[in-house]
Amino acid sequence: MTSNEFTRRDMLTVAAAGTGALAGGSFPMTPAAAAPAKEGPESMPTLMDLSLSVNGKEHRLSLDPRTTLLDALREHLHLTGTKKGCDHGQCGACTVHVDGRRVNSCLKLAVMAEGAEVTTIEGLGDPDRLHPMQQAFVEHDGYQCGYCTSGQIMSAVAMMKEPWGSDDADIREAMSGNICRCGAYQNILAAIRQVRHG
Fold it and tell me: What is 62-103 written as a DSSP string?
Protein backbone atom coordinates (compact mmCIF):
# COMPACT_ATOMS: atom_id res chain seq x y z
CA MET A 1 0.00 0.00 0.00
CA THR A 2 1.41 3.41 -0.91
CA SER A 3 1.15 6.45 1.32
CA ASN A 4 -1.60 7.77 -0.99
CA GLU A 5 -3.73 4.69 -0.32
CA PHE A 6 -3.46 4.96 3.49
CA THR A 7 -6.99 5.92 4.51
CA ARG A 8 -8.55 7.34 7.62
CA ARG A 9 -9.94 3.88 8.37
CA ASP A 10 -6.43 2.38 8.17
CA MET A 11 -5.14 5.03 10.58
CA LEU A 12 -7.94 4.31 13.08
CA THR A 13 -7.30 0.57 12.85
CA VAL A 14 -3.59 1.02 13.58
CA ALA A 15 -4.32 3.42 16.48
CA ALA A 16 -6.87 1.02 17.99
CA ALA A 17 -4.44 -1.90 17.75
CA GLY A 18 -1.69 0.13 19.41
CA THR A 19 -4.00 1.27 22.21
CA GLY A 20 -5.13 -2.31 22.83
CA ALA A 21 -1.56 -3.54 22.99
CA LEU A 22 -0.64 -0.84 25.47
CA ALA A 23 -3.67 -1.54 27.65
CA GLY A 24 -2.94 -5.25 27.63
CA GLY A 25 0.72 -4.71 28.40
CA SER A 26 1.79 -6.62 25.29
CA PHE A 27 3.28 -3.76 23.35
CA PRO A 28 6.37 -5.11 21.60
CA MET A 29 9.62 -3.56 22.72
CA THR A 30 12.12 -2.46 20.16
CA PRO A 31 15.63 -3.87 20.56
CA ALA A 32 16.86 -0.41 21.64
CA ALA A 33 14.22 -0.17 24.37
CA ALA A 34 14.86 -3.72 25.57
CA ALA A 35 18.63 -3.33 25.77
CA PRO A 36 19.96 -2.41 29.23
CA ALA A 37 21.70 0.93 29.60
CA LYS A 38 25.40 0.73 28.93
CA GLU A 39 27.57 0.81 31.95
CA GLY A 40 31.21 1.47 31.50
CA PRO A 41 33.84 4.14 31.22
CA GLU A 42 32.19 5.68 28.12
CA SER A 43 28.97 6.42 30.06
CA MET A 44 30.71 7.99 33.06
CA PRO A 45 31.27 11.76 33.07
CA THR A 46 34.87 12.86 32.86
CA LEU A 47 35.91 14.46 36.14
CA MET A 48 38.12 17.50 36.28
CA ASP A 49 40.52 18.28 39.11
CA LEU A 50 40.36 21.86 40.29
CA SER A 51 41.19 24.02 43.25
CA LEU A 52 38.66 26.47 44.69
CA SER A 53 39.51 29.14 47.23
CA VAL A 54 36.38 29.64 49.33
CA ASN A 55 36.22 31.87 52.39
CA GLY A 56 40.01 31.93 52.58
CA LYS A 57 40.46 28.14 52.44
CA GLU A 58 41.77 26.12 49.51
CA HIS A 59 39.70 23.10 48.45
CA ARG A 60 40.81 20.40 45.99
CA LEU A 61 37.87 18.88 44.13
CA SER A 62 37.21 16.46 41.29
CA LEU A 63 34.04 17.59 39.54
CA ASP A 64 32.07 17.05 36.40
CA PRO A 65 33.03 20.16 34.35
CA ARG A 66 29.31 20.99 34.07
CA THR A 67 28.98 21.46 37.85
CA THR A 68 27.82 24.94 38.77
CA LEU A 69 29.56 26.93 41.46
CA LEU A 70 26.31 26.73 43.45
CA ASP A 71 26.29 22.92 43.39
CA ALA A 72 30.01 22.75 44.17
CA LEU A 73 29.45 24.93 47.25
CA ARG A 74 26.34 23.14 48.49
CA GLU A 75 26.86 19.52 47.46
CA HIS A 76 30.64 19.15 47.61
CA LEU A 77 31.80 21.70 50.19
CA HIS A 78 28.59 21.54 52.29
CA LEU A 79 28.31 25.33 52.49
CA THR A 80 24.52 25.39 52.46
CA GLY A 81 24.04 29.05 53.39
CA THR A 82 23.99 29.79 49.65
CA LYS A 83 20.48 28.82 48.56
CA LYS A 84 19.20 27.24 45.36
CA GLY A 85 16.07 29.15 44.44
CA CYS A 86 15.15 29.33 40.77
CA ASP A 87 18.43 27.82 39.44
CA HIS A 88 18.05 30.18 36.44
CA GLY A 89 19.68 33.40 37.69
CA GLN A 90 16.37 35.14 38.32
CA CYS A 91 15.91 35.22 42.11
CA GLY A 92 19.34 36.07 43.58
CA ALA A 93 19.12 33.53 46.44
CA CYS A 94 22.44 32.01 45.32
CA THR A 95 24.42 35.28 45.28
CA VAL A 96 28.07 34.95 46.32
CA HIS A 97 31.15 37.11 45.78
CA VAL A 98 33.82 36.15 43.27
CA ASP A 99 36.82 38.40 43.70
CA GLY A 100 34.59 40.85 45.54
CA ARG A 101 31.93 41.07 42.85
CA ARG A 102 28.46 39.61 43.29
CA VAL A 103 27.49 36.77 40.98
CA ASN A 104 24.62 34.32 40.70
CA SER A 105 26.44 31.10 41.51
CA CYS A 106 23.80 29.03 39.69
CA LEU A 107 24.93 30.60 36.40
CA LYS A 108 28.68 30.22 36.92
CA LEU A 109 30.52 26.94 36.41
CA ALA A 110 32.78 25.93 39.28
CA VAL A 111 35.74 25.61 36.89
CA MET A 112 35.32 29.30 36.00
CA ALA A 113 36.00 30.23 39.64
CA GLU A 114 39.36 28.47 39.79
CA GLY A 115 42.05 30.99 40.71
CA ALA A 116 39.47 33.43 42.12
CA GLU A 117 38.51 34.14 45.73
CA VAL A 118 34.95 33.03 46.46
CA THR A 119 33.12 34.37 49.50
CA THR A 120 29.85 32.91 50.75
CA ILE A 121 27.59 34.01 53.59
CA GLU A 122 29.56 31.68 55.88
CA GLY A 123 32.69 33.73 55.22
CA LEU A 124 31.08 37.10 55.87
CA GLY A 125 30.69 36.95 59.62
CA ASP A 126 29.92 34.57 62.46
CA PRO A 127 27.39 34.59 65.32
CA ASP A 128 29.87 36.21 67.71
CA ARG A 129 30.98 38.88 65.24
CA LEU A 130 28.37 39.68 62.61
CA HIS A 131 29.15 41.70 59.53
CA PRO A 132 27.52 45.18 59.84
CA MET A 133 25.03 44.23 57.09
CA GLN A 134 24.06 41.04 58.91
CA GLN A 135 23.62 43.06 62.11
CA ALA A 136 21.44 45.60 60.29
CA PHE A 137 19.24 42.84 58.84
CA VAL A 138 18.73 41.50 62.38
CA GLU A 139 17.94 44.94 63.80
CA HIS A 140 15.46 45.81 61.04
CA ASP A 141 13.85 42.36 60.64
CA GLY A 142 15.09 42.23 57.05
CA TYR A 143 13.87 38.66 56.62
CA GLN A 144 10.79 36.54 57.19
CA CYS A 145 11.18 32.94 56.03
CA GLY A 146 14.92 33.65 55.61
CA TYR A 147 15.39 31.68 52.39
CA CYS A 148 16.50 34.69 50.33
CA THR A 149 18.36 36.38 53.19
CA SER A 150 21.89 35.14 52.48
CA GLY A 151 21.62 36.24 48.84
CA GLN A 152 20.13 39.59 49.86
CA ILE A 153 22.97 40.22 52.33
CA MET A 154 25.71 39.16 49.91
CA SER A 155 24.24 41.39 47.22
CA ALA A 156 23.86 44.32 49.64
CA VAL A 157 27.47 44.01 50.84
CA ALA A 158 28.80 44.00 47.27
CA MET A 159 26.57 46.95 46.39
CA MET A 160 28.38 49.07 48.97
CA LYS A 161 31.50 49.00 46.74
CA GLU A 162 29.55 49.75 43.56
CA PRO A 163 28.79 53.23 42.21
CA TRP A 164 25.16 53.39 43.30
CA GLY A 165 23.67 56.47 44.89
CA SER A 166 22.30 56.43 48.41
CA ASP A 167 18.62 57.30 47.79
CA ASP A 168 16.00 54.63 48.28
CA ALA A 169 15.38 54.46 44.52
CA ASP A 170 19.08 53.74 43.90
CA ILE A 171 19.13 51.02 46.54
CA ARG A 172 15.97 49.42 45.13
CA GLU A 173 17.47 49.42 41.63
CA ALA A 174 20.77 47.97 42.86
CA MET A 175 18.92 45.18 44.69
CA SER A 176 16.38 44.46 41.95
CA GLY A 177 18.03 41.13 41.11
CA ASN A 178 17.21 39.75 44.57
CA ILE A 179 13.64 38.64 45.12
CA CYS A 180 11.97 38.27 48.52
CA ARG A 181 8.86 36.14 48.16
CA CYS A 182 7.72 37.21 51.64
CA GLY A 183 7.82 40.88 50.65
CA ALA A 184 10.17 42.16 53.37
CA TYR A 185 11.48 44.84 51.00
CA GLN A 186 10.87 47.83 53.29
CA ASN A 187 12.85 46.20 56.10
CA ILE A 188 15.63 45.16 53.73
CA LEU A 189 15.77 48.73 52.45
CA ALA A 190 15.98 50.08 56.01
CA ALA A 191 18.85 47.68 56.84
CA ILE A 192 20.82 48.64 53.74
CA ARG A 193 20.12 52.34 54.31
CA GLN A 194 21.55 52.04 57.84
CA VAL A 195 24.83 50.59 56.56
CA ARG A 196 24.95 52.82 53.46
CA HIS A 197 24.64 55.98 55.51
CA GLY A 198 27.04 54.64 58.15
Answer: EE-TT-BHHHIIIIIS--TTS--SSSSSSS-TTEEEETTEEE
Domain borders along the chain are 48-196
Q: Residue 179 carries which DSSP code?
A: -
CATH architecture of the domain formed by 48-196: Roll (3.10)
For the chain, 198 residues long, give each residue's pLDDT as a single digit of tens: 554 566 666 656 656 655 555 455 554 545 455 555 555 556 677 999 999 999 999 999 999 999 999 999 999 999 999 999 999 999 999 999 999 999 999 999 999 999 999 999 999 998 899 999 999 999 999 999 999 999 999 999 999 999 998 899 999 999 999 999 999 999 999 999 999 987
CA–CA separation, 167 vs 197, rounded Å? 10
